[in-house]
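Hello, quick one for you while I still have it in my head. My current little project is about how a certain protein chain folds up. You're getting the sequence in one-letter code plus the fold written as tokens. Would you mind checking whether the tokens look sensible for this chain? Here's the protein in full, and shout if anything looks odd to you:
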Amino acid sequence: MGSATGEAAAHGAKPANRRGQGLTWVPAALAAAIFAALWPAMPPVAGGEVLRWGAAWVPSLGVNFSVLVDGLSLTFALLISGIGALVMLFAAKYMEGKYHSGRFALYLFLFMLAMLGVVLADNLLTLFVFWELTSITSYLLIGFGHADAKSRRSALQALLVTGMGGLALLAGFILIYTVVGSFDLAVVLASGDVLRESPLYLPILVLVLAGAFTKSAQFPLHFWLPNAMAAPTPVSAYLHSATMVKAGVFLLARLHPALAGTDVWLWSLTLFGGVTAVFASVMALRQTDLKQALAYTTLMALGTLVLFLADGTSSYAITGFMAFLVTHSLYKAALFLVVGTVDHGTGTRDARILGGLARAMPVTAFAAALAGLSMAGLPPFVGFIAKEVLYKGAGELALGTIVTAFALASNALMFAVAGIVCLRPFWGRPRGETPVKPHEGPWQMLAGPVVLSVLGLAFGLMPWLKQQILVSPGVDAVLGRDGEARDLRLWAGVNLALILSLVTFALGIVLYAAHVTLRDGLNRLGTHLPSLDAGWDRFLDGLKALAAWQTRILQSGRLVNYMAVTFVTLLAGLVAALIATGPGPIVLEMPYLLVKEWGIALLVLAGTGVVVSTNSRITALAGLGVVGVGVALIFITYGAPDVAITQLLVEVLVVVLVALAILKLPSLEPETGRRRWFDAALALGIGGAVTAIMLMVLEVPIDRRLSDYFEVTSWPEAFGRNIVNVILVDFRALDTFGEIAVVAVAGIAALALLKTKIAPTKEEDAR
């Protein structure tokens, strides 16, 4: 349920590092500059234009560093940069005097840039790169209080969960490329029919949903988000209310024209979104920590957004999606900053203690009231309009009854939580002493909550403004067609949506009045239910146990086991290749072999027989030398004397040096019959598979394009007539240099080992 104590101790336990503190305002200024730079794009985008800019990044893979500015990406970019500027201003004062506050400001700004990259990317691989950067920077932010074990655990959990989803997402993008032949979003979004009719559609959808659901914390992958509240409050306000957790929702909205419109999409998003919304709202009632309560209402909002993306055609549902997206970002960021101000001014976030703060913190109470009324969905705030549109949109969906039930339950619970977070701490009766005497926060911490909460009221009184610049262009982008957004109105008459709103208010009042009893009952019930968070710990323990078992098997310390694993893997790969390609033509003709060639073959076989049958290392080495000489004779016979000379020199050198090294080693231990038969079967299997592949290759016409190129260019461009030498020295010079470097390092390491003096044991000293 999380601690409700102040964050000052958690994130400021170490002595303050003053370096860079004077520059913590710079990220806020840069974010504000980015926000201002986006304003000129609003008129053309509101008029239906799509702005694109790009440059080649990895041309060989068809990857461009391209930017897409349409209604969806511009809305997200404005939220990210605008809310980011206010949060960074808040953080500059909130983290003042705390350990490495300058580093914190840098992390927060880098996260903003990564998130902007996600929403503005016009290429799937570019989007993925920034997607992973958001995971890395959020890991640094969540684990900023690294001295605390809880912060470290929460950061690692968030990184692993979202990282696994990211790998799934990359696989989905690759499959999309396989189907449509491009990573560019313009091509992908125009290929919806091709994708939906492809046999790869289901794997693509599963992989994309895995990436989106892990990032946006859909049930049952939700548990990392409440745990991420271990981060400082500015992180919670920014990453986990307005930006990062909405990255998954953004991805679903961005790919909506390409992947929506199937039963699998409809049912998947409806069930996961609806269950997440209701489950999170119930869990929010259990919390006594105000920040944890807001975290679970964030889950509720994410579930609702996913729920209303389920239908592929309803303009009312997508209008509700866009309206609620903006509304939630405004009031949730404001409320997180309010909670941070309360924590700063009282030293606690415990709802069981806080009360009567309005007198000591009037500005904070004002911002909390406006944001809370919007969160509760009361008129004339923008939250009321968003809720009305959601109810109207639910009636248009294919699963309208189910969606309406989910929305009604979650909205009523949200109403109750708004009262717990925004009403009782300020106007309720004080129920205990706070660690710090309540006092108002500085203006830098109040600017964000006040601006964001007032915007919620302004958009409620002037809904046409929100619709024109944010909602309508976003609806067009999500649906992939123009002119489909429905009007936002504060008063739309007496209709089903209004009746559902009144029912929501009534249920919300009942839930708020009984929330203490409900909280105690839910907590008692929760002790008997399995914890997914604890299940994650058991999953990691099992993963570690599997890694330990695998290490014991594969890294036993015996060279013979390493060789066996290596060659078994090689044999499996060869057999898999043969099965995948199918049996090819194999022709084995040997009438042209002469006596000398048969003699060389018998010599190689004899050397091999000596190696496998002896228990003497020197004899085995001599047998290997015989095999090497036989190979050199094959090179000479077939016109490659330079290669033969190299082979002979290496063979002689190896035999001499290794013989000197093994003179003092004991004799080889005789292998058991079972082990010897296994080694024989493995050797025959690999030899047979390699021989079969070689015979199949010989029956296929050889592609001589590369050989012809080297033959033609070796003299005019590299001034060498020996093609092999030219390839090694000129065409593949870097490869050769790398091989020389490896040999040099190995030689230096061998010399160091040979010069190492082993300390005598106690027994040897005694002797």
Q: What stands out?
A: Strands lie at 51-58, 63-69. The first helix runs from residue 7 to 11.
